[in-house]
Amino acid sequence: MSLVALPFYQKRHKHFDQSYRSIQTRYLLNEYASRKRASSQTSAQSSLQQRSSAQSTSSRSSVRGTTCQLCAKRASASEEEEREHEHRYHSQAAAYGEAKRQRFLGELAQLGESVQLARSQARTTLDQYSLQHSVGDRLEWERHAFEERMSRAPEILVRLRSHTVWEKMSVRLCFTVQGFPTPVVQWYKDGSLICQAGEPGKYRIESNYGVHTLEINRADFDDTATYSAVATNAHGQVSTNAAVVVRRFRGDEEPFHSVGLPIGLPLSTVIPYTHFDVQFLEKFGVTFRREGETVTLKCTLLVTPDLKRVHPRAEWYHDDVLVEESKWASMFFGEGQASLCFSHLHKDDEGLYTLRIVSRGGVSDHSAFLFVRDADPPVTGAPGAPMDLKCHDANRDYVIVTWKPPNTTTESPVIGYFIDRCEVGTSNWVQCNDAPVKICKYPVTGLFEGRSYVFRVRAVNSAGVSRPSRVSEAVAALDPADLKRLQAIHLEGEKEIVIHQDDLEGDVQIPGPPTNVQASEVSRNYVVLSWEPPSPRGKDPLMYFIEKSAVGSGSWQRVNAQTAVRSPRYAVFDLAEGKPYVFRVLSANKHGLSDPSEITAPIQVQDSIAVPSSPGRVLASRNTKTSVVVQWDRPKHEEDLLGYYVDCCVAGTNQWEPCNHKPIGYNRFVVHGLSTGEQYIFRVKAVNAVGASENSQESEVIKVQAALTAPSHPYGITLLNCDGLSMTLGWKVPRFSGGSAILGYYLDKREALHKNWHEVNPSPVQDRIFTVEGLTEGLLYEFKITAFNLAGMGQPSDPSEHFKCEAWTAPEPGPAYDLTFCEVRNTSLVMLWKAPVYAGSSPVSGYLVDFKEEDAGEWKTVTEAATPNRYLKVCDLQQGQTYVFRVRAVNASGPGKPSDTSEPVFVEARPGTKEVSAGVDEQGDIYLEFDCQEMTDASLFTWCKSYEEIADEDRFRVHTEGDRSRLYFMAPDKVDIGTYSVSVSDTDGVSSSFVLDEEELERLLALSNEIKNPTLPLKSDLAYEILEKGQVRFWLQAEPLSAEASFRFVVNDREVSDSETHRIKCDKPTGLIEMVMDRFTIENEGTYTVQIQDGKAKNQSSLVLIGDAFKAVLEEAEFQRKEFLRKQGPHFAEYLHWDVTDECEVRLLCKVANTKKETVFKWLKDDVLYETETLPDLERGVCELLIPKLSKKDHGEYKATLKDDRGQDVSVLEIAGQVYEDMILAMSRVCGASASPLKVLCTPEGIRLQCFMKYFTEEMKINWYHKDAKISSSEHMRVGGSEEMAWLQICEPSEKDKGKYTFEIFDGKDNHQRSLDLSGQAFDEAFAEFQQLKAAAFAEKNRGKVIGGLPDVVTIMEGKTLNLTCTVFGNPDPEVVWFKNDKDIELSEHFAVKVEQSKYVSLTISGVTAEDSGKYSINVKNKYGGEKIDVTVSVYKHGEKIPELSAPQQAKPKLIPASTSAE
After folding, report:
1. Is there a contact between 38 and 107 (Cβ–Cβ < 8 Å)?
2. Which of 1216, 1228, 1218, 1230 minimizes the C-alpha distance to 1262?
3. Which of 933, 887, 943, 927 is nearest to 910 (CA)?
4. Residues 1422, 1460: contact at Cβ < 8 Å?
5. Single pTM value for the model
6. Pick from 1363, 1358, 1442, 1365: which is nearest to 1407 by CA?
7. What is the pLDDT of residues 805-815, one digit of tens each?
8. How far apart, in whole angstroms, are the C-alpha atoms of residue 110 and residue 112?
9. Is 1369 exposed, middle or buried (0-12, 13-18, 19+ CB in 10 A)?
10. Which of 48, 191, 339, 1291 is deepest in the core (most CB within 10 A)?
């Protein structure tokens, strides 16, 4: 039976042997084995001695019975001798054995003593352990019994008490508890565990002998809450609570916490045993990053107690999924911080991240959203990368890959996806699909079993391909069913073996057919078939073949004929849409093919899911200053939604931007990163694997600002007056209005020591001062006040102090109230207050302002003399310090009762502090302006003069629009000099002031006067322009004019009106005024002026046209008039000009206009018609004349003429002189740029260097250089060229001609050079070739040759005489031989050969017969070679028709080398 190796992803089984036993057990076994071996050796020796003694006794008895006495004596003597010998032997053996035994026994005794000692020590240790254990059990039992007698649940002896304190004061909460074991105390604020490290120095928790204390240092308004103390031990839990009310004078806007996302985190499965208090010191916020960047989310925290080896458990969650360490993310927890670092961000990382710190004391967590935008695409307009790539259903050669689509708000829609795979350990990415896949799911086939792969996806749209997605987790191509086929068999003991189920199936050869064939997935592009392997399947590896058949066709087609499938799953592609198919599967192994499986039901390719419908109504609501909560109704057809994408747009821009870059699975989302005060609209679309839905309807426009809530409570309740029956109260506005204007206040009262509150005013009070009637004199009362706005009733204020109802009769004034601060800067502030209601015995004459540092004990007075104003600017304060203030009213009786101490003021300018500015608007009105970006719907601008609210509508007007307000001066005068201030309600004390002094007022008045009585600005002064008809246009442009504006033209001090000769018009919206004169003559010389008036604004501009200036205008006008007349008929839009083409041809060009079909165009050279191959195309408007290979013969006057019944036009260009030289230079430029490298050509005369170019003429400026020395043409070096090249001929070269040669052509600006190094091997090879060519030329000159005279064909009538005559040449004289049909001619009377003067040769045939027809050849040769000429002779009989042959031509010779003889 063979063993089957487990797949790598399975857990390995461990088989344990005796070595696993304990050390004590092994020691006892070793001791037992040694004792057993010793006893066996001792028994063996004793048995050996007994056998030897028995044998000797028996031998002696046998001898004694068979001998005589003599013999017996002899025998006895011999026996004695033998016994003595034997005794000596046994004595020696015994001594040796005894010594050996003694040695062994000594060693054994020593071993026994060691064993006994080890046993004794082990027994002693065990006894001690047992004794300790029993003593411990006894003590534990006794302690438990003692604790049972002493234990009791926690009991609170002194409970917590409520406190009311001023802001920035400390509060101390104490209670006493007892119990056994000692209770553990935890402090809570509104149900939340208090952590000291959350705000270092804020809380201090102490515990001494059962007294537990919580101290809140420098309490602020946020510390107003219910505080609870919970004491817990093993027997129970008790708690006590108390309210802490922190009174507030002024403070920041109350924090508004962002709406959370509907994500629930799972419960932690591992909770540390130790109790820890965890407080967050610094927290990570909403983060914005791009793909590919690095980001670290970090929280600084304080863990109490701080143990080295024991820590609470830190867990990071991405949405609701626990984050684990990976190559993309790393986590750190320790040293007072917890961080999550991303080394390379992808959009997969976008989401809500939560840090959860878990201990036995509870869970502390913090969450914030991480936004990851798309990185720059590789191609502009390409979509973002897909995300959330996952692999499913992996098998031997198959895996399904899914992903989520990108958001394409600003790009064109995605048309498909490409899937790439890469084998783990390599970097070769292979594209899996040829055509883009339209849905976010794809079955990847063709994997190799046992190999691991990673995948990535790229999106495609009309612009290009996106960046690849994040690489998927590695997946192995293995069959998960292999695990099910493994079976463990238990053997003796604890051993087991693992076998494969195939080993139990017997000898199965051909497998059975697969079963349960079905379509597990159907889409428009493919069908995924799945089946179960046959059973039994056999030991051999299985393969599968899939066959398909169109319903009704009756024929089967194998789908995977080329590649066998090893997985019980396969994706079938290339199916016709709309046509049903059936499928079957066959299994196969090396023994054969199974029968086909059962046929599936008809399957038709179609999308199983459709694009989801668009989401429903979208509702946007306020959240914070930079975020908005967007909610929407889910779509009617969700269709396996992957999530939603949210887009936003600034109202009025129609520029949509994505809010999230990864689909969110819930229908509520908080959009962060918005601009405060900006207006936005939102829309949502749903996405699934098929694609994205249509955009939802747009939400209503929403302004980004904090959500509307109820106001906070009023504070600073002050008693202002009392007459014994009523009390006048004042208070301050709530620090947080809730985003809406406060509509009123309700007052409640109660007598001291009473529990029930009674309503004072059934109707709301608008002012912050109210007189409470119907009180009883002598009683103590306390009051509380509640504010309300559109959102509802706010929290009531803290109960006031106990005010005694008794009449005020003191002569000093009562307290000032409503102390407020504005214009807080680095070293100064402005303090405001209201006059006391109770003035005392005389009117209030002034006020004294006292201040001190917050923690100081002594008050200081700002000014020694009382200020008559109800405001004061306090200067020379120390930046960064906190101060408190109070005000005392003064009358004739002296200073009165001081006001309540103000709230602490931190002296430092707020970042981004703005100041009031002064200016003048377009109408000339003077104003003061202030803008505030921190406004809410409830904010109001309040303008003051001398810190008294301005109410004089005759002198001032306030205009507020959005976050900007202006104070206009209706009739500015010196009475308006003073200090002006503005404050903005429902903000963090935003305010500013402006000192309008006399100098500033004069500057503003001057600017106002300039605006109200302006000089009409001109964009351009009066100018002239010559129009195409020769008309002169005078024009001027001012700023846009009103409909009531007027103007006039004045020429030489006379006004000109609109007429036929002076056409005048004005475009008032643009401010353009013009006058056109049709005919400009000598009489129009003079000065031209335009005068303009628009309302109060006036201006004028003049133009002087006299003398040379006038003549220039007149000449230009006349020229343009003539040009206009010329252009009424056919004319040249561009006159003749020339250029050089890339082929180095000179091209004459001109552009014509206003032509018609009858228009005639001609080219003339020197008034002679110049014929061209093609007629000019007048419709195209461009006429060309090419002059190839320009030379001096092309000199002349070239004309282009146009003519028809409307007129004619001529353009002239003379090619000569400078024009010709410029053309040559232009041609040189083209030729120089295209010149080839220098090439060597050997000739019989020498070595020629050639430079090929498109065209060459000797007029071009060229130079040749040898070793940088200019070469002049001579008999040794001749310079020349042809139309295609320039060359340098080196005649009869020698060694001195070696070196570098350079060819240079000059184009008027640049030199174009080509160089060649003619030395070394290059020169040797060229020189050798020159020698060969020279010898060959000499031989060619002197070889034998036929100069002429012989035709190639001769026709002659029978009986005639034929004479073939030619001239030969050769030096030395050549040898001449005649042949007939390649055979020598035997001379006779019939054939006669004659040679005269060694150069005139003739062959005469007398009486020609038909037999003389044939090929005759003459062979002329000397020692240098020769040539052979063939002549065909045709003989016809008398009376026959002469044969029709082609006209005879000069016979062509055939060369005969000098070494070849004629045949």
Report:
1. no
2. 1228
3. 933
4. no
5. 0.46
6. 1358
7. 999 999 999 99
8. 5
9. middle
10. 339
